[in-house]
Design brief:
This protein has 654 residues and is an alpha+beta fold. The strands form seven sheets. A four-stranded antiparallel sheet has the order 5-4-7-8, with no helix packed on it. A four-stranded mixed sheet has the order 6-16-11-14, with helices on one face. It has a three-stranded mixed sheet with strand order 12-3-13, with no helix packed on it. It starts with a helix and ends in a 12-residue tail after the last strand.
Length: 654
Amino acid sequence: MPEANPPAAGDAREEQGQSIIYKIVQGLAIWFGMQLLMKQLTGGNNAQTATTKDASGNIVQVPANTGEIPAYQLRPSSLDEGAVWNPIPQRLAPIWPSDSSVDIVVTLSSSFVPVKISSVPEEYVALKEKGFKLGNSTDTRVAETTFTVPSSVQKNGTLWGHFYVGLTGSNLDPKEPGFDPATAFHFVYPLTQYLPKKKEAKTRNLLEDRPEVEEEEPEEQIAGPIIANYYHPNTSLSFVPDTGIFNYPQTHPAIRQFIHVEPTGARDGSGQNSWYYPVLYVNTFWQMRSHMVQLNETVKTLPLRLDLSNMKNWKFNILASVDFNSKQQALQAAYGSPIAGGGDGSEIEIIKEMFLDTNPYLLAVTAAVSVAHLLLEMLAFGSDIAHYRKKKDNVGISVRSILANVFMQTVIFLYLIDNSQNTSWMILGSQGIGILIEFWKITTVVNVRVRPAPPGSLIPYRVAFEDKYQLSETEEKTKEYDEIAFKYMYMAGVPLIIGYAIWSLIYESHKSWYSYVLTTLVGSVYAYGFLMMVPSLYINYRLKSVAHMPAKAMMYKFLNTFIDDLFAFTIKMPFLYRLATFRDDIIFFIYLYQRWAYRVDYTRVNEFGQGGEDEPEEKKPEPKSLREADGPVEKVEGTAKSSGTDTGAAKKRK
């Protein structure tokens, strides 16, 4: 038996080596399989040129990726026997090879109807390129111009772009004789966008008279959103050569708008399938609303930059779909219809601005910590609840701070509802959960009762906060320190709040007195909210202990604070909110110093009857008879004690 052990070990090593090789081969096979699948889904490199002869015997080059659909140049002159011509083609194949060289001309006009290219004034010829190679990612062209805005466009008309595309050397102008739809095509696309304007609530200085506002009120009786005409000076044009065969009726509308079907109504022998020209994507994805110009009669001239390039099919599908859906959501929200997750449809704009204006490395870090932020917030909620559920006394707890925190979070919640009609439900939900937890904390510390008000009060009943039991000496000290801290906090905070309220009333405008009160309170919360943590720090200082603090919840919250600091550099937010993220850091560093100064040994029970580590409760011994209970008295180091009398005694801090 012992002699068989060495071969067994060798076999095990051999099997382990074979297992590693098998895993490597399996990983390579999966990688190649995924690459093959992606090529099939995105078109791959299957769009190649094939040389053949047409019905007249002429040698022609045709695309080799048309599948069962014959090439356009080899299409039958009549339908198959029994076939029916379908006005809506079911499948579309490329009409030209994907590596063709094309000429392109782009002109500007206030009319949808094309005119002869030769009759277009030079300033309205925005792009004129020859020999552009489809599928060549290194072939890029740029054209810049300045044009006079047509009067109809100034008066809310559309600025149309006329796109003339054809194989190199072919006639591009459909108005000229000799134009052949087999070698060239024309389409129009708007270069201006009709977008809903954001509703801006009318504000006024509350100290001024109101008659002027009342006279203008009847003008606001407008049903639906206000649509304005916008123009962006930069537009990207991208050919997408590897699109393959389309199932036309099932194609997404965002993609279908850029598919141009052969106009003569030609079909294959089945009468169901046709051909389409190369997809030219007019890319408006990166056109930010903040960079657009609203057109009116004051806009006389405009610049235009056109970038011509090639784009991969998968990228085209993503950009076109996201851009189309975001604009549809913005329009839906403008008409008052709810959209999933709340918001007003402009969230994608914020994300795009982050990609454009933020350093890529900082953006990657922000994306990673966003997940951590959500996780830490959930852990903080859970740890906070667990801490207060286990707490048996009120030592170190500032009840006034909890009440003040409830008030501040409620003010912020009301402010979000008042100032942002389409605020995301995720933000409101998180804020609401925080308020409920703070309310629950109050019930764990004191009893909330409704008592009759004293004689002479205007309100017959009042809410009273009563102690749950007779407070210990340390709890009484906590209560006293809490009162002292809040007294000094009031002395510092109330003048600041009053000063800010007076300044806001004089120099700022508001929708109403209700909005003014909310705005003033929210501004005070953001600017001076850190004062609510001062009583807890003061109590820690007087008690010379931090054992009563929810350590885990505090760490989770402060880690989230540093994540908020990172967001403050990458996300647009009000200045006061940004200030609020940085002032929390000061509280955190003071708390860290107190944890260092008043160290805690978590392996022992602290001075407040709490254990830093959860230990299983010891089972109480079964009651013994009087004879069994009387044990011999032992003497250890000069101290007499009865055996068994120290069972279950609490450990004492040194």
